[in-house]
Amino acid sequence: MESTQKKQQIAEMSRVQKIFQHPTFQTALNKTLRAEADRIFCRHGIDHLLDTARLAYIFSLERGYDLPKDLIYAAALLHDIGRGRQYEDGTPHDLAGCQLAAPILEEAGFRTQERQAILDAILGHRSSADGSDRLAEVLYDGDKASRCCFLCSAQEACNWSREKKNLHLTW
Length: 171
What we know:
It contains nine helices and no strands. About 60% of the residues lie in helices and about 0% in strands. The protein is an all-alpha fold. It has helices at about 5-10, 15-20, 25-35, 45-60, 70-80, 85-90, 95-110, 110-125, 135-145. The protein starts with a helix and ends in a 26-residue tail after the last helix.
């Protein structure tokens, strides 16, 4: 890749890098990793977050949505940030995630409208989107498609419905 093009791509994703480096993000991610250390089901580490981001971006491109890459990646990195709190006190992770994500997004330089779009997508990532929110739609689809349920030894014990499970090698 030409160095000028690479520098441009790095600049375009600089706000996402700020999210990843943010102390609140790192603390929440580590809390989740500790809570899920012995989990037999899917985990919610950085590999899942990046797989979700990449798939959501592909879905946006394939569907002609023209969503900004950094918004997709920001939503994907933050969509499970509330998991640690859910394990601690039962707060649904989408709600806890929005509370944690809002100041991170502001500090990373996202504008008010962008922050709201990302927070709406985080809130909507647990149920199938109705098509009115394209960011929530690709985040939901990327989240589900990122799972290799067809390889999982805990598939039968998983409480996900068969419709949500990724049972075929597609992406």
